[in-house]
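Reopening this one. Same input as before:
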Amino acid sequence: MSEARTIFFLGKPGCGKGTQAKLLAEATGWPMFSSGKLFRLLEQEDTPVGRKLKKELADGLLSPHWFAMYLYLKSLFSIPNETSAIFDGFNRKIREAELIIESLQWLNRSFSIVHIAISDEEVHRRIDDRRQAEGRSDDHVVGERLEEYYEHTAPAIELFRNAGVLIEIDGERTPEVIAKDIRTALNLPVQTEVA
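Same output, byte for byte:
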């Protein structure tokens, strides 16, 4: 049996992290854990935590690192040793990145960080398109979300790069081409088109 893999997706708002995580999960059958989905479920609850999350998401703020890490560790510890898994959005701050590296090394799990790179101009275009199509509550504060990216996520990316686990992917192409590049970079079978 091959070694279990743990794959994380990282990038600017609107880069397609969720789409690519979902495509990889569909291609591999691996379970996927999305911080955004978990946070959006929690923000719908009429509880003090739900109301606070709702306000912070509406303001374009990232959750406290310990909250994201609570959800990450809870998800990680639910995965059997032999099962590969995909995580989307749990590694956006330097302290989160440090804990991800430490926890996976402690569990002796192989892991890779897929960074989907796009320009700020592309972020604005995609978020504007998504806001019109989906009406996501956090999509009206793209400037604040980009500031959070440069302040918190960019240093986390450098930490992963220095740890030798970062895979850079050009995110300004079609989702299908990006998905193929990701599977190639991860040494996974690439689905071929049937003529």
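So the earlier flakiness isn't reproducible anymore. For the record, Strands lie at 5-11, 32-34, 85-88, 110-117, 166-170.
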